[in-house]
UniProtKB/TrEMBL annotation, chains A, B:
Pathway: Cofactor biosynthesis; adenosylcobalamin biosynthesis; adenosylcobalamin from cob(II)yrinate a,c-diamide: step 2/7. InterPro entries: CblAdoTrfase_CobA, P-loop_NTPase. This is Corrinoid adenosyltransferase. It comes from the Bacteria. SUPFAM superfamilies: P-loop containing nucleoside triphosphate hydrolases (SSF52540). Its main location: cytoplasm. It is found in: Cytoplasm. PANTHER family: CORRINOID ADENOSYLTRANSFERASE (PTHR46638). Keywords: ATP-binding, Cobalamin biosynthesis, Cytoplasm, Nucleotide-binding, Porphyrin biosynthesis, Transferase. Belongs to the Cob(I)alamin adenosyltransferase family. One of its GO terms (biological process) is cobalamin biosynthetic process.
């Protein structure tokens, strides 16, 4: 065996020990609250990837989209065809499209009613609250109410909240938080938002 | 109209102008090379969410998984049921499981042959190269060869590369790069990797 192969083997043995110990230490089984925030790509698509993952395990999934960007997205077309997915879209466009705060508040409250119904249903294994952080950022919804409803959900239900600028109160109670940090973006280099990739 | 509503309307009008100008400036239509890296959650699941998105637009998708963590993931079960998805898994486990560099190199090279076939097929609209960054990090594959094959792909084909520690040469040629930055992770708080969420 060559030197490089031996060093590799020793390094990977040490790594395996560390990984095995971490796996042995993680024993709790429960629903997890995930927050995907930041200004980079992948906050919503990571949630939709987990939807596919959950469906592969035979789970039922509920999705509420709080800010409707467009009505012809690939993810909506695809997941509406899946019998185990409930897909709710609310809102009339990005908040800079409506330019009407009172209407945005009413729309967000109606969407939260739909979210709450999912959060009270133990048959739903995964709830995605897409762009909820935007509704919280603009104070269309009360963050304390949202957190109380999240805390009261079924013990084994997973929730993924997406959107830039997650409020600190939500980050505090979440289990797993990722900041999707933009390194670079094709859009800034003049590439159109491409169907099948961006929407 | 109240003060807060007026300020909101003015703010959103300004925001709409900025957004509209950016959309007007982005005119190029072509395949985009995306890299999802970093130590946080969501690198692979964001890619799988885009798979769903592409399928919703009627595109064909190819996935190559370079590092096979486990054989019973929800995403694999779900997407193997989709007629427009080609799903290739290579590797015999995380690299710290095999502890055999020569075998890992041979496995990565065989996986790259599968990737190259997808990258030469204009009928494939989206190619996901899952955990390719790991194979590059350990020098199982030559980064210059990988970049040359990516550059030679069909003009409208999108590619998503995932895995922590993306090599700088790949970041340099990519169009959209996101660093999934870990803020916190349930696993570190003792929660098991949950089916339907983590795998």
């Amino acid at each position: 065996m060559s030197d490089i192969d031996e060093r590799h083997e020793a390094r990977m043995k040490r790594k395996k020990d560390v990984v095995d110990q971490a796996i042995a230490a993680a024993r709790v089984e429960r629903g997890v609250l995930v927050v995907n925030t930041g200004t980079g790509k992948g906050k919503s698509s990571a949630a939709f990837g987990v939807v596919a993952r959950a469906l592969g395990h035979g789970m039922k999934v509920g999705v509420v989209q709080f800010i409707k960007g467009r009505s012809d997205t690939g993810e909506e077309a695809f997941f509406r065809r899946q019998p185990d997915v409930q897909w709710h879209v609310s809102g009339e466009g990005f908040t800079w499209e409506t330019q009407n705060r009172a209407r945005d508040v009413a729309t967000a409250e109606a969407a939260w009613d739909q979210a709450r119904a999912l959060l009270r249903d133990p048959a739903i294994g995964l709830v995605v609250l897409d762009e909820l952080n935007i509704a919280l950022k603009y104070h269309y919804l009360d963050v304390a109410t949202v957190i109380a409803d999240l805390a009261a959900r079924p013990a084994m239900q997973h929730v993924i909240v997406t959107g830039r600028a997650a409020p600190p109160e939500l980050v505090e109670v979440a289990d797993t938080v990722t900041d999707m940090t933009m390194v670079k973006h094709a859009f800034k280099a003049g590439v159109k938002a491409m169907p099948g990739l961006e929407w």
